[in-house]
Amino acid sequence: MISTQANLVYLKAAWAAHASISAENCKQSYEEAGISFERINHSWIVRKNETQVSTMPLRYTRQELRMGFLGRIEMEARKAAAEIEAVLLRDLDVPEGHTLIVELEDSMRHLRRNGNRVLAIYVLPTAEASERIGVEIQAFLDAPRACLYAHQISAEGYAGADLLDGCAKRERHPRAATYTELAQCMAQTLNSALEKAFTPSAHVQ
């Protein structure tokens, strides 16, 4: 059965493989990058250290190898995003007059184009909201970690009071063993902050 959870060992190795032959490392040899190849019939099995990170045809370019890494990474990144979204939809108390937005396709497009590692998630007000807040979550797709931001929004649309003021660094920048656990931590931190910003009657039941 295909796992619905992101393969964290693979993600760590694949991101490392991509970085080892990209940007300032673009001229580094495969040996120096810790990338090895094993021929199996008409394909190459590609490994970063001991972890398989891709499969390539016998003829390929360095750019095709980088894109191959990102293509496989995207498959696991989508699983990570699904884990996070499922927990937030279940556990996050989105205030009345606000909506949860997971920028999945935009984030995946940036991943494919330039190796972007961030899944952008927002809680934003709708037109009818009387009290307004803005939440931004940057969930990283190389390991279960994130950055949280939450502010009140003024009538003019500017960021006001920091709703996470007083939170510990580990709450603003959580890390976890899995993406499900990460999302649970994020929901707990944000629920606590939003409870202080809204009266109980303003919460979605």
Model description:
The protein is α+β, with helices and mostly antiparallel strands. The chain folds into two domains: 8-76, no CATH class; 81-202. The protein is 40% helix and 26% strand. It has six helices and eight strands. A five-stranded antiparallel beta sheet has the order 4-5-6-7-8. Helix 3 (62-91) packs antiparallel against helix 4 (104-114) and helix 3 (62-91) crosses helix 6. The radius of gyration is 20 Å and the shape is elongated. Mean pLDDT is 90; it is low at 201-205.
> Radius of gyration from the CA trace?
20 Å
Helix percentage range: 25-40%
* Inertia-based shape: elongated
Gap between N and C termini, in Å? 37 Å
Calculate the mean pLDDT score and round it. Answer: 90
Q: What about the largest sheet? A: 5 strands, antiparallel
Strand content: 25-35%
**Number of helical runs?**
6
By secondary-structure content and strand pairing, the structural class works out as alpha+beta
**What is the string of SSEs from the N terminus onward?**
HHEEEHEHEEEEHH
